[in-house]
């Protein structure tokens, strides 16, 4: 469903991505792995429209995204959970969740989705009337993910959701991502430092290094490949 | 009585309507009780309230600074005078035109401003504030706009039904107060809904807001237009009250005073806009009264008001970092907590039965509409406080 071709992205004179090709199938989880500074975040930000590439294309079901503004890409069903932040600290948990689905203009469906999110993330239900500023880091991560899901996205871009979460919560989170694909038919592009847990739920994995793809394989194959694992994933 | 309170608590619209009606009644008694001089001051506070409330929406809630709101007031004032002079429309239509024309100016300024941030935005709006009043002195336009002397306006005539001796000032203050109440009512309902929520979101984190599907640029233009319309109405009312539109009435300091007013009143708070406007009107007069009665030599006495004015502003901002409205709310909260503690002092075995999550036994006042209305803002403040520490 997502086709990235020859994507080259610069920050001023710094090249962060150099000719990245990537293909993501509908209803699958694709892990994007790589060391710090490899360009993973840059890739997600370009797909969601926050960055404009110098060259290359990003197509969603054959539709070019690189020239669209962020808000229009959101409306095509692409939700991006950024590496940090992603919540509006001065709005309440409830308001944050509703904000994520506001653009659909279907109030009944929105209320239903928000209720679903409270089921999926019980800690949020207990804190629904509190401002996001008063949440812990992990709770914020949950809220950011839940906020992205209330829009009912077809493609979910998640940037290091495990950051700062307890191991048990990370496992739960990965299970949630898996279920989003298996049960709801959503597609997930998952950036992770925690390669082991990402590979445990992913169908495919892409390894980035210095802004270039160095491996793109089935997750199981990659996990079994000692050379790649040692060289890029550090386990 | 109970059902009335219930309706008020549930419906924001009903609550705002009740507040607007109460304000109109209170202002009626106030304006009839005082003399012409006080009536004129009330009228000034009322038209400034319109402009400050507009700025509260744009800068306080939207986070887009504008140093050009005095210029929007000028657009409204000149529009009002020109419309009356050329076509002699009824007053309500004249004021609607003042708001409408200024809203159009807001589209232009907003389209430019939506692309700018911080110092650039301040600079652009500053240029607007400095440049626009100068238009009146522009040669080809001096005939139409009256140059430095401006244009005068025939004072509005109180309806005959009010009696022969009805003072003009009181009529002017009624017009201005009605304009202010309507402005606050409309803005109050607007910011409580989707518009206000998305606006606060885009101020807090524009990337997160955009990723949530909020059209940030369009939203900011809308906020500028709404804000400009309110300032334009304020300017139109100024023209009606001062019976004049002249460049000298819209100096750069007016724009800066409006900014000071939203900060003193409480950023992002519409009730705070009223406090801010009152400060703008009453502190300078109070300061000059004080200095004339001080017995200092003329040299000192004539410069004293400005110093006192500045001093008051500094003291207020230091004492109430979140503005007068925020300070009042803190004080109100502390008083309520203390009252509740006195009513329900038993921390002993009883506390364990009632538990921390159940509603408070003595908290009959928890249901008052006033408090229910304050709730969303309290949350906003909590967030705001966190914000400041992180930056
Ligand atoms: N705003 C920026 N300005 C300039 N250079 C940047 C900027 N953001 C990232 N870079 C550079 O681009 C490269 C890729 O950064 P990116 O954030 O995509 O890495 P990443 O793979 O997400 O790393 P991490 O795992 O640490 O999050 C890095 O070399 C980084 O220094
Ligand atoms: Mg990153």
UniProtKB/TrEMBL annotation, chain A:
SMART domains to which the protein is assigned, alphabetical: AAA
Keywords: Amino-acid transport, ATP-binding, Nucleotide-binding, Transport
PROSITE patterns hit by this protein: ABC_TRANSPORTER_1, ABC_TRANSPORTER_2
GO biological process: L-amino acid transport
Molecular function in Gene Ontology: ATP binding; ATP hydrolysis activity; branched-chain amino acid transmembrane transporter activity
Alphabetical list of Gene3D superfamilies matching this protein: P-loop containing nucleotide triphosphate hydrolases
The keyword Nucleotide-binding belongs to this UniProt entry's keyword annotation: yes
Similarity comment: family membership: Belongs to the ABC transporter superfamily.
Family matches, as PANTHER family: HIGH-AFFINITY BRANCHED-CHAIN AMINO ACID TRANSPORT ATP-BINDING PROTEIN LIVF
Designated name of the protein: ABC transporter ATP-binding protein
Organism for this UniProt entry: Actinomadura darangshiensis
UniProtKB/TrEMBL annotation, chain B:
Keywords per UniProt: Cell membrane, Membrane, Transmembrane, Transmembrane helix
Span list, region Disordered: 335-391
Entry-linked InterPro entries: ABC_transp_permease, LivM-like
UniProt feature, compositional bias: Basic and acidic residues: 375-391
Subcellular location(s) per record: Cell membrane
Any Gene Ontology CC annotation: plasma membrane
Top-level taxonomic group: Bacteria
GO molecular function: branched-chain amino acid transmembrane transporter activity
Keyword Membrane listed: yes
Keyword Cell membrane listed: yes
Spans through the membrane: 12-30, 42-63, 70-89, 95-113, 120-138, 171-191, 221-246, 258-283, 304-321
Alphabetical list of Pfam families matching this protein: BPD_transp_2
Protein's membrane topology: Multi-pass membrane protein
Primary localization class, coarse: membrane
Biased composition, class Low complexity, residue ranges: 349-362
PANTHER family: HIGH-AFFINITY BRANCHED-CHAIN AMINO ACID TRANSPORT PROTEIN BRAE, HIGH-AFFINITY BRANCHED-CHAIN AMINO ACID TRANSPORT SYSTEM PERMEASE
Name of the protein described by the UniProt record: Branched-chain amino acid ABC transporter permease
Taxonomic path: Bacteria, Bacillati, Actinomycetota, Actinomycetes, Streptosporangiales
